[in-house]
Amino acid sequence: MRIFRLITILWVAARFGLDEFFLGHERVRGLRWLVNVTLFWRDLSEPRAVRLRRALEALGPIFVKFGQMLSTRRDLMPFDIAEELARLQDRVPPFPGSEVRIKLEAIYGKSLETVFAQFDAEPVASASMAQVHFAILRDGTEAAVKVLRPGIGEIIEHDLGLLEAAAILVEKLFSDGKRLHPREVVGEFRKTLTDELDLMREASNCSQLRRNFEQSDLLIVPEVYWDYCEAGVMVMERMKGVPISQTAKLREMGINIPKLAQDGVEIFFTQVFRDAFFHADMHPGNIQVNQQGQYIALDFGIMGTLTEVDKNYLAQNFLAFFQRDYRAVAQAHVDAGWTPADTRVDEFEAAIRAVCEPIFDRPLKEISFGKVLLRLFQTSRRFNMEIQPQLVLLQKTLLNIEGLGRDLDPDLDLWKTGKPFLESWMKEQFGWQGALRNIKHEAPRWATLLPQLPRLAHAYLAQDNANAMREQTALLLAQQRSNQRWLILIAILLTAGLVLAGYAYLHPH
Protein backbone atom coordinates (compact mmCIF):
# COMPACT_ATOMS: atom_id res chain seq x y z
CA MET A 1 0.00 0.00 0.00
CA ARG A 2 2.73 2.47 1.02
CA ILE A 3 4.80 1.82 -2.11
CA PHE A 4 1.83 2.67 -4.35
CA ARG A 5 1.20 5.83 -2.34
CA LEU A 6 4.88 6.77 -2.72
CA ILE A 7 4.67 6.27 -6.48
CA THR A 8 1.58 8.52 -6.59
CA ILE A 9 3.36 11.23 -4.59
CA LEU A 10 6.44 11.08 -6.83
CA TRP A 11 4.25 11.28 -9.95
CA VAL A 12 2.35 14.32 -8.67
CA ALA A 13 5.62 15.96 -7.60
CA ALA A 14 7.11 15.40 -11.06
CA ARG A 15 3.98 16.64 -12.83
CA PHE A 16 4.02 19.94 -10.94
CA GLY A 17 7.81 20.37 -11.07
CA LEU A 18 8.42 20.07 -7.33
CA ASP A 19 11.83 18.55 -8.10
CA GLU A 20 12.91 22.20 -8.41
CA PHE A 21 12.93 22.46 -4.61
CA PHE A 22 15.41 19.59 -4.20
CA LEU A 23 17.53 19.76 -7.34
CA GLY A 24 18.68 23.21 -6.34
CA HIS A 25 20.79 21.63 -3.60
CA GLU A 26 24.47 21.38 -4.46
CA ARG A 27 24.65 17.63 -3.76
CA VAL A 28 22.08 16.73 -6.44
CA ARG A 29 22.22 19.76 -8.73
CA GLY A 30 23.89 17.69 -11.45
CA LEU A 31 20.69 15.69 -11.95
CA ARG A 32 18.66 18.74 -12.97
CA TRP A 33 19.49 18.51 -16.68
CA LEU A 34 18.52 14.80 -16.75
CA VAL A 35 15.15 15.46 -15.11
CA ASN A 36 14.41 18.40 -17.43
CA VAL A 37 15.21 16.32 -20.51
CA THR A 38 13.17 13.33 -19.32
CA LEU A 39 10.14 15.39 -18.24
CA PHE A 40 10.23 17.87 -21.12
CA TRP A 41 6.42 17.67 -21.52
CA ARG A 42 5.63 19.46 -18.24
CA ASP A 43 4.03 22.90 -18.17
CA LEU A 44 5.99 24.85 -15.54
CA SER A 45 4.81 28.32 -16.53
CA GLU A 46 3.09 28.92 -13.18
CA PRO A 47 5.12 30.25 -10.22
CA ARG A 48 6.66 27.58 -7.99
CA ALA A 49 4.43 28.49 -5.03
CA VAL A 50 1.26 27.99 -7.10
CA ARG A 51 2.54 24.65 -8.39
CA LEU A 52 3.31 23.52 -4.82
CA ARG A 53 -0.20 24.45 -3.64
CA ARG A 54 -1.83 22.62 -6.55
CA ALA A 55 0.31 19.53 -5.90
CA LEU A 56 -0.74 19.40 -2.24
CA GLU A 57 -4.37 19.74 -3.25
CA ALA A 58 -3.94 16.87 -5.73
CA LEU A 59 -2.37 14.64 -3.04
CA GLY A 60 -5.41 14.87 -0.80
CA PRO A 61 -6.62 16.19 2.56
CA ILE A 62 -3.69 15.13 4.74
CA PHE A 63 -1.18 16.96 2.56
CA VAL A 64 -3.56 19.94 2.39
CA LYS A 65 -3.65 20.08 6.19
CA PHE A 66 0.14 19.82 6.32
CA GLY A 67 0.42 22.69 3.83
CA GLN A 68 -1.96 24.75 5.96
CA MET A 69 0.26 24.17 8.98
CA LEU A 70 3.42 25.01 7.01
CA SER A 71 1.83 28.29 5.93
CA THR A 72 2.13 29.44 9.54
CA ARG A 73 5.81 28.48 9.77
CA ARG A 74 7.30 31.54 8.08
CA ASP A 75 10.70 30.42 9.36
CA LEU A 76 10.64 27.33 7.16
CA MET A 77 10.06 28.81 3.73
CA PRO A 78 10.24 31.92 1.57
CA PHE A 79 7.48 34.51 1.76
CA ASP A 80 5.90 33.66 -1.62
CA ILE A 81 5.41 30.01 -0.69
CA ALA A 82 4.03 30.79 2.77
CA GLU A 83 1.51 33.22 1.28
CA GLU A 84 0.37 30.74 -1.38
CA LEU A 85 0.01 27.85 1.08
CA ALA A 86 -2.20 30.07 3.24
CA ARG A 87 -4.75 29.92 0.40
CA LEU A 88 -5.21 26.17 0.78
CA GLN A 89 -8.84 25.23 1.38
CA ASP A 90 -9.80 21.88 2.86
CA ARG A 91 -12.70 21.09 0.51
CA VAL A 92 -13.44 17.36 0.61
CA PRO A 93 -16.40 15.57 -1.01
CA PRO A 94 -18.65 13.91 1.63
CA PHE A 95 -18.82 10.16 1.98
CA PRO A 96 -22.24 8.56 1.27
CA GLY A 97 -25.06 8.51 3.81
CA SER A 98 -25.21 4.72 3.52
CA GLU A 99 -21.66 4.50 4.89
CA VAL A 100 -22.58 6.88 7.71
CA ARG A 101 -25.46 4.61 8.69
CA ILE A 102 -23.24 1.49 8.66
CA LYS A 103 -20.57 3.22 10.77
CA LEU A 104 -23.00 4.62 13.36
CA GLU A 105 -24.94 1.37 13.72
CA ALA A 106 -21.65 -0.47 14.24
CA ILE A 107 -20.67 2.04 16.96
CA TYR A 108 -24.01 2.03 18.79
CA GLY A 109 -24.84 -1.63 18.18
CA LYS A 110 -28.42 -0.78 17.22
CA SER A 111 -30.36 0.73 14.35
CA LEU A 112 -30.09 4.45 13.67
CA GLU A 113 -33.85 4.87 14.21
CA THR A 114 -33.46 3.49 17.74
CA VAL A 115 -30.73 6.02 18.62
CA PHE A 116 -32.18 9.14 16.97
CA ALA A 117 -35.75 10.29 16.44
CA GLN A 118 -34.55 11.82 13.17
CA PHE A 119 -31.24 11.75 11.30
CA ASP A 120 -30.44 13.80 8.21
CA ALA A 121 -28.36 11.64 5.84
CA GLU A 122 -27.22 14.74 3.93
CA PRO A 123 -24.16 16.26 5.66
CA VAL A 124 -24.07 19.98 6.45
CA ALA A 125 -20.26 20.09 6.51
CA SER A 126 -17.52 17.83 5.19
CA ALA A 127 -13.81 18.01 5.98
CA SER A 128 -10.75 15.80 5.64
CA MET A 129 -11.23 13.92 8.92
CA ALA A 130 -14.98 13.89 9.50
CA GLN A 131 -18.35 15.26 8.43
CA VAL A 132 -21.34 16.65 10.32
CA HIS A 133 -25.04 15.73 10.14
CA PHE A 134 -28.02 17.26 11.88
CA ALA A 135 -30.23 15.01 14.00
CA ILE A 136 -33.00 15.05 16.63
CA LEU A 137 -32.55 13.01 19.79
CA ARG A 138 -35.30 10.79 21.20
CA ASP A 139 -36.31 13.52 23.68
CA GLY A 140 -36.73 16.08 20.87
CA THR A 141 -33.37 17.87 21.38
CA GLU A 142 -31.77 19.20 18.19
CA ALA A 143 -28.20 17.96 17.81
CA ALA A 144 -25.19 17.96 15.50
CA VAL A 145 -23.52 14.59 14.88
CA LYS A 146 -19.85 14.49 13.84
CA VAL A 147 -18.70 11.21 12.27
CA LEU A 148 -15.14 10.17 11.38
CA ARG A 149 -14.43 9.15 7.80
CA PRO A 150 -14.16 5.37 7.28
CA GLY A 151 -10.55 4.15 7.02
CA ILE A 152 -9.09 7.60 7.72
CA GLY A 153 -6.67 6.19 10.33
CA GLU A 154 -4.87 3.95 7.82
CA ILE A 155 -4.63 6.77 5.26
CA ILE A 156 -3.12 9.11 7.83
CA GLU A 157 -0.60 6.54 9.01
CA HIS A 158 0.67 5.90 5.47
CA ASP A 159 1.03 9.59 4.63
CA LEU A 160 2.67 10.45 7.95
CA GLY A 161 5.28 7.75 7.40
CA LEU A 162 6.20 9.35 4.10
CA LEU A 163 6.27 12.85 5.61
CA GLU A 164 8.60 11.63 8.36
CA ALA A 165 10.94 10.16 5.75
CA ALA A 166 10.91 13.50 3.89
CA ALA A 167 11.69 15.36 7.13
CA ILE A 168 14.77 13.18 7.67
CA LEU A 169 15.97 14.00 4.14
CA VAL A 170 15.50 17.73 4.75
CA GLU A 171 17.47 17.46 7.97
CA LYS A 172 20.31 15.58 6.27
CA LEU A 173 20.49 17.50 2.99
CA PHE A 174 20.13 21.11 4.09
CA SER A 175 22.59 22.93 6.32
CA ASP A 176 19.75 24.76 8.09
CA GLY A 177 17.75 21.56 8.52
CA LYS A 178 18.57 20.68 12.12
CA ARG A 179 17.84 24.17 13.46
CA LEU A 180 14.37 24.11 11.90
CA HIS A 181 13.50 20.78 13.54
CA PRO A 182 11.61 19.25 10.57
CA ARG A 183 11.12 15.96 12.39
CA GLU A 184 9.67 17.78 15.41
CA VAL A 185 7.32 19.70 13.09
CA VAL A 186 6.06 16.45 11.54
CA GLY A 187 5.85 15.02 15.07
CA GLU A 188 3.60 17.90 16.12
CA PHE A 189 1.52 17.30 13.00
CA ARG A 190 1.24 13.60 13.88
CA LYS A 191 0.13 14.44 17.42
CA THR A 192 -2.48 16.88 16.10
CA LEU A 193 -3.91 14.36 13.63
CA THR A 194 -3.89 11.57 16.21
CA ASP A 195 -5.85 13.80 18.60
CA GLU A 196 -8.35 14.60 15.84
CA LEU A 197 -8.95 10.87 15.28
CA ASP A 198 -10.37 10.54 18.82
CA LEU A 199 -13.69 12.39 18.95
CA MET A 200 -13.97 11.72 22.68
CA ARG A 201 -10.91 13.94 23.09
CA GLU A 202 -12.54 16.60 20.93
CA ALA A 203 -15.70 16.34 23.02
CA SER A 204 -13.66 16.87 26.20
CA ASN A 205 -11.96 19.90 24.59
CA CYS A 206 -15.38 21.33 23.77
CA SER A 207 -16.59 20.72 27.32
CA GLN A 208 -13.52 22.42 28.82
CA LEU A 209 -13.84 25.49 26.59
CA ARG A 210 -17.55 25.74 27.38
CA ARG A 211 -16.78 25.66 31.11
CA ASN A 212 -14.09 28.34 30.70
CA PHE A 213 -16.56 30.72 29.03
CA GLU A 214 -19.66 29.77 30.99
CA GLN A 215 -19.98 33.30 32.40
CA SER A 216 -18.91 35.08 29.21
CA ASP A 217 -21.13 37.22 26.97
CA LEU A 218 -18.65 37.00 24.09
CA LEU A 219 -18.33 33.30 23.21
CA ILE A 220 -20.91 30.50 23.03
CA VAL A 221 -19.74 26.87 23.04
CA PRO A 222 -22.12 23.93 22.36
CA GLU A 223 -23.03 21.45 25.06
CA VAL A 224 -21.75 17.89 24.63
CA TYR A 225 -24.26 15.04 24.86
CA TRP A 226 -21.97 12.46 26.43
CA ASP A 227 -24.38 9.52 26.29
CA TYR A 228 -24.09 9.55 22.49
CA CYS A 229 -20.31 10.10 22.19
CA GLU A 230 -17.72 7.48 21.26
CA ALA A 231 -14.22 7.60 19.75
CA GLY A 232 -15.72 7.65 16.24
CA VAL A 233 -18.73 9.92 16.83
CA MET A 234 -19.40 13.16 18.74
CA VAL A 235 -22.90 14.47 19.41
CA MET A 236 -23.39 18.03 20.62
CA GLU A 237 -25.88 20.84 20.81
CA ARG A 238 -26.96 22.21 17.43
CA MET A 239 -25.90 25.82 17.14
CA LYS A 240 -27.73 28.34 14.97
CA GLY A 241 -25.73 31.22 13.61
CA VAL A 242 -24.33 32.88 10.53
CA PRO A 243 -20.77 32.14 9.31
CA ILE A 244 -18.55 35.03 10.34
CA SER A 245 -17.32 35.43 6.76
CA GLN A 246 -20.81 36.57 5.63
CA THR A 247 -20.34 40.16 6.77
CA ALA A 248 -23.14 41.54 4.56
CA LYS A 249 -25.67 39.28 6.26
CA LEU A 250 -24.28 40.16 9.68
CA ARG A 251 -24.81 43.85 8.94
CA GLU A 252 -28.40 43.09 7.91
CA MET A 253 -28.84 41.47 11.33
CA GLY A 254 -27.71 44.72 12.95
CA ILE A 255 -24.38 43.32 14.23
CA ASN A 256 -21.75 45.91 15.18
CA ILE A 257 -18.90 44.65 12.97
CA PRO A 258 -16.03 46.73 14.50
CA LYS A 259 -17.08 45.57 17.98
CA LEU A 260 -17.23 42.00 16.71
CA ALA A 261 -13.62 42.30 15.53
CA GLN A 262 -12.49 43.67 18.91
CA ASP A 263 -14.40 40.92 20.74
CA GLY A 264 -12.47 38.34 18.72
CA VAL A 265 -9.16 39.78 19.91
CA GLU A 266 -10.37 39.79 23.53
CA ILE A 267 -11.53 36.17 23.24
CA PHE A 268 -8.12 35.18 21.91
CA PHE A 269 -6.15 36.89 24.69
CA THR A 270 -8.56 35.54 27.32
CA GLN A 271 -8.06 31.97 26.13
CA VAL A 272 -4.28 32.31 25.98
CA PHE A 273 -3.41 34.35 29.07
CA ARG A 274 -6.27 33.60 31.44
CA ASP A 275 -6.91 29.93 30.64
CA ALA A 276 -3.74 28.79 28.78
CA PHE A 277 -6.18 26.71 26.71
CA PHE A 278 -7.14 28.06 23.30
CA HIS A 279 -9.00 27.13 20.13
CA ALA A 280 -6.19 26.65 17.61
CA ASP A 281 -8.24 26.36 14.41
CA MET A 282 -10.15 29.64 14.34
CA HIS A 283 -10.60 30.06 10.60
CA PRO A 284 -13.93 31.50 9.32
CA GLY A 285 -15.37 28.04 8.66
CA ASN A 286 -15.26 27.22 12.37
CA ILE A 287 -16.84 30.44 13.66
CA GLN A 288 -20.43 31.64 13.54
CA VAL A 289 -22.25 34.63 15.03
CA ASN A 290 -25.71 34.54 16.62
CA GLN A 291 -28.44 37.21 16.67
CA GLN A 292 -26.97 38.80 19.81
CA GLY A 293 -23.58 39.31 18.17
CA GLN A 294 -21.88 36.54 20.16
CA TYR A 295 -19.23 34.28 18.71
CA ILE A 296 -20.11 30.59 18.31
CA ALA A 297 -17.12 28.23 18.35
CA LEU A 298 -17.22 25.02 16.31
CA ASP A 299 -14.79 22.14 15.69
CA PHE A 300 -12.58 21.51 18.73
CA GLY A 301 -10.17 18.96 17.28
CA ILE A 302 -7.15 21.27 17.50
CA MET A 303 -6.67 22.98 20.86
CA GLY A 304 -3.50 24.53 22.22
CA THR A 305 -2.14 24.66 25.76
CA LEU A 306 0.62 26.71 27.35
CA THR A 307 2.69 26.28 30.49
CA GLU A 308 3.02 29.08 33.03
CA VAL A 309 6.57 29.65 31.76
CA ASP A 310 5.28 30.04 28.19
CA LYS A 311 2.52 32.42 29.31
CA ASN A 312 4.87 34.68 31.23
CA TYR A 313 7.43 34.66 28.41
CA LEU A 314 4.79 35.62 25.84
CA ALA A 315 3.22 38.33 27.98
CA GLN A 316 6.59 39.92 28.70
CA ASN A 317 7.49 39.84 25.00
CA PHE A 318 4.17 41.32 23.90
CA LEU A 319 4.50 44.17 26.37
CA ALA A 320 8.14 44.73 25.48
CA PHE A 321 7.16 45.01 21.80
CA PHE A 322 4.34 47.41 22.66
CA GLN A 323 6.81 49.59 24.61
CA ARG A 324 9.61 49.15 22.01
CA ASP A 325 11.88 47.75 24.71
CA TYR A 326 13.96 45.62 22.34
CA ARG A 327 16.61 44.80 24.94
CA ALA A 328 13.93 43.17 27.09
CA VAL A 329 12.84 41.09 24.07
CA ALA A 330 16.41 39.98 23.37
CA GLN A 331 17.11 39.22 27.02
CA ALA A 332 13.89 37.19 27.32
CA HIS A 333 14.97 34.97 24.42
CA VAL A 334 18.40 34.38 25.93
CA ASP A 335 16.98 33.72 29.42
CA ALA A 336 14.49 31.22 27.96
CA GLY A 337 17.35 29.32 26.31
CA TRP A 338 15.92 29.88 22.84
CA THR A 339 19.20 31.36 21.65
CA PRO A 340 22.70 30.08 22.52
CA ALA A 341 24.01 31.11 25.91
CA ASP A 342 26.92 32.98 24.34
CA THR A 343 24.60 35.24 22.30
CA ARG A 344 25.53 38.92 22.63
CA VAL A 345 22.37 40.57 23.88
CA ASP A 346 23.34 43.97 22.48
CA GLU A 347 23.74 42.55 18.95
CA PHE A 348 20.46 40.65 19.22
CA GLU A 349 18.76 43.82 20.48
CA ALA A 350 20.09 45.81 17.51
CA ALA A 351 18.84 43.19 15.05
CA ILE A 352 15.35 43.19 16.58
CA ARG A 353 15.27 47.00 16.53
CA ALA A 354 16.15 46.97 12.82
CA VAL A 355 13.15 44.72 12.20
CA CYS A 356 10.59 46.54 14.30
CA GLU A 357 11.35 50.25 14.10
CA PRO A 358 10.42 50.67 10.40
CA ILE A 359 7.13 48.93 11.10
CA PHE A 360 6.26 50.86 14.24
CA ASP A 361 6.90 54.20 12.59
CA ARG A 362 3.78 53.59 10.48
CA PRO A 363 0.22 54.12 11.81
CA LEU A 364 -0.62 51.36 14.25
CA LYS A 365 -3.62 50.15 12.26
CA GLU A 366 -1.31 49.39 9.31
CA ILE A 367 0.98 47.13 11.34
CA SER A 368 0.70 43.45 10.41
CA PHE A 369 1.73 41.07 13.15
CA GLY A 370 2.27 38.44 10.44
CA LYS A 371 4.88 40.62 8.74
CA VAL A 372 6.58 41.29 12.07
CA LEU A 373 6.78 37.55 12.69
CA LEU A 374 8.21 36.95 9.22
CA ARG A 375 11.00 39.50 9.70
CA LEU A 376 11.77 38.17 13.17
CA PHE A 377 12.01 34.61 11.87
CA GLN A 378 14.45 35.74 9.21
CA THR A 379 16.52 37.48 11.89
CA SER A 380 16.42 34.38 14.11
CA ARG A 381 18.47 32.41 11.57
CA ARG A 382 21.43 34.71 12.07
CA PHE A 383 21.44 34.05 15.82
CA ASN A 384 20.75 30.29 15.58
CA MET A 385 17.49 30.72 17.45
CA GLU A 386 15.81 27.41 18.25
CA ILE A 387 12.27 27.06 16.87
CA GLN A 388 9.81 26.18 19.63
CA PRO A 389 7.33 23.55 18.36
CA GLN A 390 5.01 24.05 21.35
CA LEU A 391 4.27 27.61 20.15
CA VAL A 392 3.45 26.68 16.53
CA LEU A 393 -0.30 26.43 17.25
CA LEU A 394 -0.30 29.77 19.06
CA GLN A 395 1.45 31.46 16.15
CA LYS A 396 -1.04 29.91 13.70
CA THR A 397 -3.98 31.06 15.83
CA LEU A 398 -2.64 34.60 16.21
CA LEU A 399 -2.26 34.94 12.45
CA ASN A 400 -5.80 33.57 11.98
CA ILE A 401 -7.17 36.07 14.48
CA GLU A 402 -5.37 38.97 12.86
CA GLY A 403 -6.59 37.99 9.39
CA LEU A 404 -10.14 37.41 10.61
CA GLY A 405 -10.19 40.71 12.49
CA ARG A 406 -8.92 42.71 9.53
CA ASP A 407 -11.50 41.06 7.24
CA LEU A 408 -14.22 42.26 9.62
CA ASP A 409 -12.74 45.68 10.27
CA PRO A 410 -9.80 46.91 8.11
CA ASP A 411 -9.12 49.56 10.77
CA LEU A 412 -8.72 46.97 13.53
CA ASP A 413 -5.67 47.73 15.64
CA LEU A 414 -4.59 44.40 17.05
CA TRP A 415 -1.82 45.96 19.10
CA LYS A 416 -3.94 48.73 20.59
CA THR A 417 -6.81 46.34 21.34
CA GLY A 418 -4.58 43.79 23.02
CA LYS A 419 -2.33 46.10 25.03
CA PRO A 420 -4.79 47.03 27.83
CA PHE A 421 -5.70 43.37 28.29
CA LEU A 422 -2.05 42.33 28.55
CA GLU A 423 -1.17 45.16 30.95
CA SER A 424 -4.13 44.23 33.16
CA TRP A 425 -3.13 40.58 33.07
CA MET A 426 0.48 41.37 34.00
CA LYS A 427 -0.69 43.45 36.98
CA GLU A 428 -2.91 40.61 38.13
CA GLN A 429 -0.09 38.10 37.75
CA PHE A 430 2.73 40.03 39.42
CA GLY A 431 0.96 42.68 41.53
CA TRP A 432 -0.77 42.43 44.91
CA GLN A 433 -3.84 40.88 43.25
CA GLY A 434 -1.69 38.03 41.97
CA ALA A 435 -0.15 37.54 45.41
CA LEU A 436 -3.60 37.37 47.06
CA ARG A 437 -4.84 34.95 44.42
CA ASN A 438 -1.83 32.68 44.98
CA ILE A 439 -2.41 32.78 48.74
CA LYS A 440 -6.08 31.91 48.22
CA HIS A 441 -5.09 29.08 45.89
CA GLU A 442 -2.53 27.68 48.34
CA ALA A 443 -4.66 28.21 51.51
CA PRO A 444 -6.36 24.76 51.43
CA ARG A 445 -2.96 23.08 51.15
CA TRP A 446 -1.59 25.16 54.01
CA ALA A 447 -4.65 24.37 56.17
CA THR A 448 -3.92 20.67 55.67
CA LEU A 449 -0.19 21.01 56.18
CA LEU A 450 -0.03 23.27 59.28
CA PRO A 451 -1.49 20.75 61.83
CA GLN A 452 1.04 18.18 60.57
CA LEU A 453 4.08 20.43 61.08
CA PRO A 454 4.92 19.26 64.67
CA ARG A 455 4.73 15.60 63.62
CA LEU A 456 6.75 16.26 60.45
CA ALA A 457 9.36 18.22 62.46
CA HIS A 458 9.61 15.41 65.02
CA ALA A 459 9.94 12.84 62.25
CA TYR A 460 12.64 14.93 60.60
CA LEU A 461 14.59 15.31 63.84
CA ALA A 462 14.13 11.64 64.62
CA GLN A 463 15.39 10.82 61.17
CA ASP A 464 18.39 13.06 61.78
CA ASN A 465 19.04 11.28 65.10
CA ALA A 466 18.66 7.91 63.44
CA ASN A 467 21.04 8.98 60.71
CA ALA A 468 23.51 10.20 63.34
CA MET A 469 23.23 6.91 65.24
CA ARG A 470 23.75 4.96 62.04
CA GLU A 471 26.81 7.05 61.22
CA GLN A 472 28.21 6.56 64.76
CA THR A 473 27.57 2.82 64.63
CA ALA A 474 29.25 2.60 61.23
CA LEU A 475 32.22 4.53 62.60
CA LEU A 476 32.52 2.20 65.62
CA LEU A 477 32.27 -0.85 63.40
CA ALA A 478 34.91 0.57 61.11
CA GLN A 479 37.15 1.24 64.10
CA GLN A 480 36.47 -2.24 65.41
CA ARG A 481 37.34 -3.76 62.06
CA SER A 482 40.49 -1.63 61.97
CA ASN A 483 41.42 -2.77 65.50
CA GLN A 484 40.78 -6.37 64.52
CA ARG A 485 43.13 -6.00 61.57
CA TRP A 486 45.84 -4.61 63.84
CA LEU A 487 45.33 -7.45 66.37
CA ILE A 488 45.58 -10.05 63.61
CA LEU A 489 48.76 -8.38 62.29
CA ILE A 490 50.27 -8.31 65.82
CA ALA A 491 49.32 -11.96 66.37
CA ILE A 492 50.94 -12.93 63.07
CA LEU A 493 54.11 -11.03 63.99
CA LEU A 494 54.20 -12.58 67.49
CA THR A 495 53.68 -16.04 66.06
CA ALA A 496 56.41 -15.49 63.51
CA GLY A 497 58.72 -14.22 66.28
CA LEU A 498 58.03 -17.26 68.46
CA VAL A 499 58.66 -19.60 65.57
CA LEU A 500 61.94 -17.89 64.76
CA ALA A 501 62.97 -17.89 68.42
CA GLY A 502 62.20 -21.63 68.76
CA TYR A 503 64.11 -22.37 65.56
CA ALA A 504 67.13 -20.47 66.90
CA TYR A 505 66.98 -22.27 70.22
CA LEU A 506 66.86 -25.72 68.57
CA HIS A 507 69.62 -24.97 66.08
CA PRO A 508 72.32 -23.00 67.90
CA HIS A 509 75.46 -22.11 65.98
From TrEMBL:
Pathway given in the UniProt record: Cofactor biosynthesis; ubiquinone biosynthesis [regulation]
One BP term from GO: ubiquinone biosynthetic process
Transmembrane intervals: 486-506
Domain ABC1 atypical kinase-like positions: 87-332
SUPFAM superfamilies: Protein kinase-like (PK-like)
Keywords tagged on the record: ATP-binding, Cell inner membrane, Cell membrane, Kinase, Membrane, Nucleotide-binding, Transferase, Transmembrane, Transmembrane helix, Ubiquinone biosynthesis
Family assignment from sequence similarity: Belongs to the protein kinase superfamily. ADCK protein kinase family.
Name this polypeptide is given: ABC1 atypical kinase-like domain-containing protein
Biological source species: Sulfuriferula nivalis
